[in-house]
Structures are given as structure tokens and as C-alpha cells.
Amino acid sequence: MSGEPQDDCLFCKIVAGHVPATIVRETDTTVAFRDINPQAPTHVLVIPKTHYKDAATLATAEPALAADVLREAKAVADEDKLESYRIVFNTGAGAGQTVFHAHAHVLGGRGMQWPPG
Ligand code: 5GP
Ligand code: ZN
């Protein structure tokens, strides 16, 4: 929850410029940067600049901002000339979420299997 920057949040620190990241796109409301441990040739994280713990909390509090994140995910895919790509919102530790600041993973540039692991 909140929308306020969290002192202990890695992605709030990236937004503030206190932790370096390879930023590929930035808008008034979002930042997109390369994942430090890429799982595909394109692996970019798109985050809202304001802090919400997960995608659903973001969408409930600020639906227009959630839409900004999705639009930026497509813009990232377009910049990397991806015809197909996957957008993932891990939600909860059991699903693999490790950073509790809402983020879209944009993955592409290789074949993808379904169902995911
Ligand atoms: P989650 O597991 O929460 O869905 O995704 C968090 C992602 O953040 C992981 O894919 C992880 O590799 C990435 N990550 C963790 N620490 C850093 C960092 O300091 N910089 C960047 N660019 N990515 C990070
Ligand atoms: Zn945060």
C-alpha cells in the first residue's frame, strides 16, 4: 500500500537515484530498467514511481497508473523490436515475488514455454 516512498524499498531507491540501474525508459509516472539477473535477452522491469506493494494494490489505488505501467511495458517491447513478449506480475512470495514494490517483468527475445515454472 501507500504511494509514499519506503525507506527500505530497493525500487524506491532506484526511483530516487540512490541505487544505480540501467534505465531504458522513464515517464512522469514510471521507470523501466534492465533486470540485474536477466532471464531472457530482453528482461526489463517497469515500475510506478510511487510505492505499492503489488500490482493489484496499485490497480485498486491508482488504476490510471497501472495502465501507465502496461503501456510502458509495450513501449519497452517495441523498442527492443519484440513481436511477442511476456508480461509477468509475480504477486506474493509463493509466486516468486521478492521485491514488494509493484513491477511488471517484460520478457522476450527467446521462445517461451507454457505453463511457466
Ligand atoms: P520479483 O522476484 O519480485 O518478481 O522480481 C524482482 C526482480 O528484481 C528480480 O528479477 C531480480 O533479479 C531483480 N532485482 C533485484 N535486485 C535488483 C537490483 O538491484 N537491480 C536490478 N536492476 N534488478 C534487481
Ligand atoms: Zn518502493
Number of domains: 1
The CATH class designation is Alpha Beta
Secondary-structure element series: HEEEHHEE
Q: Outline the low-pLDDT stretches.
A: none
Major sheet: size, sense and barrel closure? 5 strands, antiparallel
Shape: globular
Helix-and-strand structural type: alpha+beta
Order of strands across the main sheet:
1-2-3-5-4
Q: Which molecules are bound in this entry?
A: guanosine-5'-monophosphate, zinc ion
Radius of gyration: 13 Å
**Which whole number gives the mean pLDDT?**
96
Protein name: Histidine triad nucleotide-binding protein
InterPro entries: Histidine_triad_HIT, HIT-like, HIT-like_sf
Organism: Streptomyces lanatus
Compact overview of the structure:
With 117 residues, this protein is of the alpha+beta class. The chain is built from three helices and five strands; from the N terminus they run αβββααββ.
Overview of this protein structure:
By secondary structure, the protein is an alpha+beta fold. It has one domain: HIT-like (HIT family, subunit A). It is built from 3 helices and 5 strands. It has helices at about 10-15, 55-60, 65-80; strands spanning about 25, 30-35, 40-50, 85-90, 105-110. A 5-stranded antiparallel beta sheet has the order 1-2-3-5-4, with helices on one face. The protein binds guanosine-5'-monophosphate and zinc ion. The site of guanosine-5'-monophosphate has 14 residues, from strand 2. Zinc ion binds next to helix 1.
Keywords:
117 residues; alpha+beta; HIT family, subunit A; 5-stranded antiparallel sheet; binds guanosine-5'-monophosphate; binds zinc ion
